Amino acid sequence: MTFSDEEYYEVIQKNKSVEEAYQSIKVICNKLQNETNCPEEDVDCFLKFICGKWKN
Question: Per-residue pLDDT averaged across 4-25, rounded?
C-alpha cells in the first residue's frame, strides 16, 4: 500500500510513536551527513538501500 506525502504527514502528526520514529530518523541522517561530510544524495541512497532490510 502506498501513501501520499500528505497522508504520511497526517499520520506523523496524529501518532506519537510514528512522529518519534520520524524525528529520530531525521536526527540520525543529519548526524551521519555531518560526521561523514557526504552529500545529501548519499544519505538518500543509503536510506533506499536499508529500506526493507530493517528486520535483519
Answer: 96
Decide if pLDDT at 1 tops 80: no
Cβ–Cβ < 8 Å for 36, 18: no
pLDDT number for residue 2: 87
> 31: which residues sit within 8 A by CB, 6+ positions away?
none
- Among candidates 48, 54, 46, which has minimal Cα distance to 21? 54
Residue 36 grid cell: 561523514
Cell 528486520 belongs to 55
Q: For the chain, give me the number of helices (H) and strands (E)?
A: 3, 0
Find cell 506525502 and name the residue. Answer: 5
d(CA 41, CA 28): 15
